[in-house]
Specification:
Number of domains: 1
Protein name: Universal stress protein
Helix content: 25-40%
Oligomer: single chain
Largest sheet: 10 strands, mixed
InterPro entries: Rossmann-like_a/b/a_fold (IPR014729), Universal_stress_UspA (IPR006015), UspA (IPR006016)
CATH topology: Rossmann fold
Organism: Kaistella flava (ex Peng et al. 2021)
Order of helices and strands: EHEEEHEHEHHEEHEHEHEHE
Mean pLDDT: 82
Number of helices: 9
Family: Belongs to the universal stress protein A family.
CATH architecture: 3-Layer(aba) Sandwich
Length: about 300
């Protein structure tokens, strides 16, 4: 049966840190399995001074040096990935903030998935104000895969498919099956309900079990009652030694989104297992982009 959901174009923003290089290995191997195109982007930060005479670049020579250095590094990465994985690779430089850069690529290149490296546990300030990976999770207009720096595998043999909300369940099911097939893996279906929503979640859980059976998909399943969905999902993933967790793009757009008990922030901070956040491509995000950059969008002419 042909999958409704495919992964044909993967974007990975890279800053040449160890966590982004680690994520690049995962993204490259994933592109190879899915026969997908891999786009690697890097942001060159540019600062401007605005005066009566107009806007001027601060340290234009330094900007040029950083641009040349980044171009050289990207070229080396592209050649290395072509030789090692035999995949289609494109590299690009940008000066926009990371969210605008990603969403421009989602629209122009039909990106199916953004892959980002994360450092795992965040400081309290980052938890409240939002880390780079958290901002991408919220505002990227396509699915996002967060790879913790401590995750050293390049395949996803054990896939955890939690059901805690009704959002994107069909797409999550298709992606779970797709990942299982591409990785020769298996699916763990987990229903997680708190007392207030247990009936609603259990109904979705039972329906999804039937859907997986109709698609002739092998899976294991269990339903757990919990007052802390993030904690129980992370614990089950650890106990079952899962390689990836699929989550729906649903969050409480309330004061909790700015505090440490936000579901997604707790998941990022509470597990060293990759998180695949499923979104409909080009989905309109209601909340405004958090400030992640103070740079102008204009890049000076090079050369």
């Amino acid at each position: 049966m042909q999958m409704k959901t495919e992964i044909k174009t993967i974007l990975i923003p890279i800053d040449f840190t160890e966590k982004s290089k680690n994520a690049l290995k995962v993204a490259a191997k994933m592109a190879q399995r899915h026969q997908a195109k891999l786009i690697i982007s890097h942001t060159v930060h540019i600062y401007y001074m605005i005066s009566r005479s107009g806007k001027q670049v601060i340290g234009s020579e330094t900007v040029q040096e950083n641009t040349n250095r980044a171009t050289e590094k990207l070229d080396k990465l592209r050649i290395s990935l072509l030789e090692k994985f035999n995949i289609e690779v494109e590299t690009r430089l940008c000066s926009q903030n990371i969210i605008d850069s990603i969403n421009d690529s989602v629209e122009s290149d039909q990106i199916d998935l953004v892959v980002m490296g994360t450092s795992g546990q965040q400081k309290m300030k980052q938890l409240i104000l939002g880390s780079n990976s958290y901002n991408v999770l919220l505002h990227a207009n396509c699915s996002v895969l967060l790879i913790p720096e401590k995750f050293k595998k390049t395949s996803f043999k054990k896939i955890l498919f939690p059901i805690r909300v009704k959002d994107e369940l069909d797409q999550k099911a298709d992606l779970s099956i797709l990942l299982a097939n591409k990785n020769d893996g298996n699916i763990n279906l987990l229903g997680v309900g708190d007392p207030d929503r247990m009936i609603e979640v259990r109904k979705s859980y039972i329906e999804m079990k039937k859907n997986l059976m109709l698609k002739s998909t092998d899976y294991e399943s269990e339903f757990l009652l919990s007052h802390d969905n993030a904690e129980i999902i992370a614990q089950v993933a650890k106990d079952k030694k899962c390689d990836i967790i699929l989550l729906a793009d649903e969050d409480e757009h309330s004061w909790k989104s700015f505090m440490a008990d936000n579901f997604f922030k707790k998941m990022i901070n509470g597990t060293t297992i990759p998180l695949f956040i499923v979104k409909s491509k080009l989905k309109k995000i209601k909340n405004k982009t958090e400030a992640v950059s103070g740079y102008d969008l204009t890049i000076p002419a090079l050369g």
